[in-house]
Design brief:
530 residues, alpha+beta, SH3 type barrels, 4 domains, 3-stranded antiparallel β-sheet, 16 helices, mechanosensitive monoatomic ion channel activity, MscS_channel_TM-2, MscS_channel_C_sf, cell membrane, membrane
Length: 530
């Protein structure tokens, strides 16, 4: 039994020995793995790691390799080797450069990359030449000195965090808290100043929005401050990766909040401008633009959050584009209506509150939305017209009329004397001339003909007040004045009737009205009109 156990022990030792990692520079994956593997605590051989550095040797190459790892660890940049290419002929054609290279972290560290030189892959000469500048930009000047003054007991660790690092995190948190209260007032004053320089006006809504905007801006500054000093604590890669991921998520969320508040401030300013303009369609554009910009900010922020969790930005954009095309194809009518909405706001054929006639629809424009326009008919019912169709209709905008025309015929009895007809027409003309609600330079009051049962007087006037309610009030006033004039003159309005003539009927005479045609009396009545 002991011999069998000894055999398996020797066999396992042989297998582990066979899996011993060797220096491999054949492809990007192998080179990066070689560099980092030989700088781990349980496999620390900096001389082998230094072989990934091109153009340097000995201690100088080792120092560059170590600095490269510290930079990646300090920024919490953990390499996912499942995504690093293993093709020895891998060609990175991104950007303006074409060649055999692989950038480890294109967005965070674009200057650190490996490239094919000869038959092997090395960290590029450009990377090694900039390593000192990158190192200084990542680690504050006091980092090395801080490491030298830490006593032995300070290196005791818990959860991969040493005692002195816990103390450093506490100090960093206290500094951030103090800076928060200091920066809050400073940033608020700066934002107020910028707002006043851009727009020379302010109100309570703008002040409230700027006050709400101050806090996330201050927090963004504090996150930048923490991210700048955090590498000096030399935290473990796993800890740094977690902290930087949390900070990047908070940064994205705060930026989303900042842009949403900026949209709110912009829309408040634009809303005030829209209210100052004559057209009401600008007022309706405010909520539409607000919803659109808000949607853009939220979608952009969501895509950014996806990239923080390792999703390739190109894949996200491509997926969003393909998804957008699919949605557009599946909802062509919605897209057509949206384009129609854009055309309505560009052409501005009507405004909110205008009475329009479009095809078989007629009503007051109440709302212009993304997809449709809402009309309120005269019977208070609602027409919901798709904007794609409305943009192609012939729209008769009654709301853009300079005046509201009113035309009718006044029918008076056939037996009205000509003198009274003239006096009645002159009196109506004077009523219109003295009425402030009508045009006194463009109207018609004429005896135009003989109707079936009445003499016809044309009344054609133009009311100056454009809304429907005011038009009806103007009609009421005009009608009442005409009725008063007719009563004073003794003019009778006709109603549908038929006269039957029976000749030679004994002792029967036609009915005659006792009209008073005294010229002085009629002239006095006309002169009394005020």
């Amino acid at each position: 039994m002991k011999k069998i156990l000894l055999f398996f022990l020797l066999l396992s030792s042989t297998l582990f020995a066979q899996k011993k990692v060797k220096v491999d520079l054949s492809n990007p994956n192998a080179t990066i793995y070689t560099h980092l593997y030989f700088l781990q605590d349980d496999s620390y051989q900096p001389s082998k790691s230094a072989q990934t550095i091109y153009g340097y040797s000995g201690k100088e190459a080792e120092e560059i390799a170590i600095k490269l790892k510290k930079i990646l660890d300090g920024k919490g940049l953990k390499i996912d080797f499942s995504k690093v290419p293993t093709d020895k002929m891998y060609a990175d054609t991104s950007g303006f450069k074409i060649g055999y290279k692989y950038v480890l972290f294109p967005s965070q560290m674009p200057d650190i990359y490996v490239e094919k030189i000869g038959g092997n892959w090395y960290y590029s000469p450009e990377t090694t030449s900039k390593i000192n500048d990158i190192y200084i930009s990542v680690f504050p000047w006091y980092t090395e000195k801080l490491q030298q003054i830490i006593p032995e007991f300070g290196h005791r660790s818990f959860l991969k965090i040493e005692l002195w690092q816990f103390f450093g995190i506490l100090i960093l948190g206290l500094l951030s808290l103090v800076l928060f209260y200091i920066l809050r007032k400073i940033v608020y004053l700066i934002l107020r100043r910028i707002q006043y320089l851009l727009v020379h006006k302010t109100n309570d809504k703008i002040n409230l929005s700027i006050r709400k905007l101050t806090r996330p801006v201050v927090l963004l500054l504090l996150i930048w401050f923490i991210k700048s000093l955090l590498p000096s604590l030399m935290l473990h890669l796993e800890v740094n990766t977690f902290i930087f991921l949390a900070l990047n998520i908070m940064t994205t969320v705060f930026w989303i909040y900042v842009f949403l508040k900026l949209v709110q401030v912009i829309m408040i300013i634009y809303g005030d401008y829209a209210e100052s303009t004559h057209g009401k369609l600008d007022d309706q554009l405010v909520p539409i633009v607000d919803n659109f910009l808000t949607g853009v900010v939220i979608i952009g922020g969501f895509l950014k959050l996806l990239t923080l969790f390792g999703v390739d930005p190109v894949t996200v954009i491509a997926g969003a584009s393909i998804g957008g095309i699919a949605i557009a194809l599946a909802s062509q009518d919605t897209v057509k209506n949206f384009i129609g909405t854009i055309m309505i706001f560009i052409d501005k054929p009507f405004h909110i509150g205008d009475w329009i006639e479009a095809g078989s629809f007629a009503g007051t424009v109440e709302k212009v939305g993304f997809r449709s326009t809402r009309l309120r008919a005269a019977d208070t019912s609602i027409f919901q017209i798709p904007n794609s169709g409305l943009s192609e209709m012939v729209v008769n905008n009654k709301g853009l009329r300079a005046y509201r025309r009113y035309q009718t015929n006044l029918g008076i009895r056939y037996d009205t004397p000509p003198e009274l007809i003239d006096a009645f027409i002159i009196g109506i003309r004077k009523i219109i001339e003295l009425d402030s609600g009508t045009r006194n330079d463009a109207f018609n009051v004429e005896f135009i003909g003989f109707g079936d049962f009445s003499l016809l007087i044309l009344l054609n006037v133009y009311f100056t007040k454009l809304d429907w309610d005011s038009e009806q009030a103007s009609k009421h006033k005009l009608h009442m004045e005409i009725l008063k004039l007719a009563k004073e003159l003794g003019v009778e309005f006709a109603f549908p009737s038929t006269t039957l003539m029976i000749e030679q009927f004994p002792d029967k005479k036609a009915i005659t009205m006792p009209y008073d045609i005294d010229k002085e009396k009629t002239q006095k009545i006309i002169d009394s009109i005020k």
